[in-house]
Design a protein that fits this description.
The structure is a single chain. The chain has about 350 residues and is α/β, with parallel strands linked by helices. Strand 2, helix 2 and strand 3 form a beta-alpha-beta unit. The termini are far apart. The protein has an eight-stranded mixed sheet, sandwiched between helices. Helices cover about 35% and strands about 20% of the residues. The protein has two domains: about 220 residues, Spore Coat Polysaccharide Biosynthesis Protein SpsA, Chain A (Alpha-Beta Complex), CATH 3.90.550.10; about 110 residues, Rossmann fold (3-Layer(aba) Sandwich).
């Protein structure tokens, strides 16, 4: 008897209030050839009892206790137990819509060159109270084509982690989740894309992404802003070093305090910074650690410069894109958005 087509990988910690609904959303899938590999990560609230009760009623549900500690250990332990050819991530506080597994599995079957596929998500939180997260969801939902995801991968994580399905062989060829002072999912996507893995999204909302105060992204230090930017610098640096080796200068768009701090992370990765670009006349003409601050009109032409924007002000990203494009710069070749 052949194994399941899809392994749904669900780590859980103290999710007794939500995990039953999450499991039921998998049981309601139109695709039936799945197994749910649920890994309890040291819960103290009855989560594992709920899972075991569900498993007693449905043999497709397999329940394990994490022998390690933390989300990365739980994910990698679950991957070792997985029997499916495709791995679908799922969190214990979200709900998959009925067509999710079928649509994503069909997508990968019809596109053998695609390694992973996400989907659009519905934001299941208070968009007024958590406006930043709601705006992130709206931004992420706009990125569906592989080219869009690749181009904007240094702005933020372009994929909502529990919305992704990927081929099992990627773990063997590109590695599993890594532990460190960084968000484990974002690191995985950046590493896979650096290795040439094609990632796309089904342009439909197939997951309700709920926003609980207990979410790790709200409480764990690995998800703080500085950890994201240090991780971006690690994967941006090879691109910038290659450009510098080819005779192009590396210019940072943004001369404010945060942009300078993020540029320093690139320097720590061996990237030589030629100078800074800013539109603020109060900054133009000054020097930062011996490097000039110039206006956009003084930025060298694309053949001689690679620009990296660290300006995070809302609305500024498109303005900077327009300015650079007007000067003949091509995004993802001559400039990158990194904030």
């Amino acid at each position: 008897m052949s194994g399941p087509l899809v392994t749904v990988l669900m780590p859980a910690r103290n999710a007794a209030e939500t995990i039953e609904a999450a499991v039921e959303s998998i049981q309601a899938q139109t695709l039936s050839a799945w197994e749910l590999t649920a890994v309890d990560d040291g819960s103290t609230d009855g989560t594992i009892e709920i899972l075991r009760s569900a498993a007693a009623r449905d043999p497709r549900i397999r329940v394990f206790s994490n022998p390690g500690r933390g989300i990365v250990a739980a994910l990698n332990f679950g991957l070792r137990q997985a029997r499916g050819r495709l791995i679908a991530r799922m969190d214990a506080d979200d709900q998959a819509l009925p067509e999710r597994l079928a649509r994503q599995a069909a997508w990968l079957k019809s596109r053998p060159g695609t390694g992973a596929v996400g989907c659009r998500v519905r934001y299941g939180g208070d968009a007024r109270r958590a406006r930043g997260l709601a705006l992130y969801v709206a931004w992420s939902n706009r990125l569906t084509a592989a080219e869009d995801i690749l181009r904007e991968r240094f702005v933020e994580s372009p994929l909502v982690h529990p919305s992704v399905m990927f081929r099992r062989e990627l773990i063997e060829s590109c590695g599993a989740y890594a532990a460190g002072d960084f968000p484990e999912d974002y690191e995985l996507w950046l590493r896979w894309m650096a290795a040439g893995v094609r990632i796309e999204k089904v342009p439909e909302a197939l997951l309700v992404w709920n926003d609980r105060q207990e979410r790790l992204s709200r409480s764990d230090a690995r998800y703080r802003s500085e950890a994201f930017f240090r991780l971006k610098a690690r994967y941006l640096a090879p691109i910038a070093r290659k450009a510098a080796a080819g005779g192009r200068e590396i210019w940072i768009w943004g001369a404010g305090r945060l942009a300078r701090r993020r540029a320093a992370m690139l320097e720590a990765e061996g990237v030589p910074i030629a100078g800074y670009v800013d539109v603020d006349p109060r900054k133009i003409g000054h020097r930062i650690r011996g490097r000039p601050v110039v206006g956009p009109e003084e930025l060298p032409e694309p053949s001689r410069a690679l620009a990296i924007s660290y300006v995070a002000k809302r609305g500024a990203r498109q303005d900077i894109r327009n300015l650079l494009t007007a000067k003949g710069f091509c995004e993802a070749r001559d400039f990158w958005m990194a904030a």
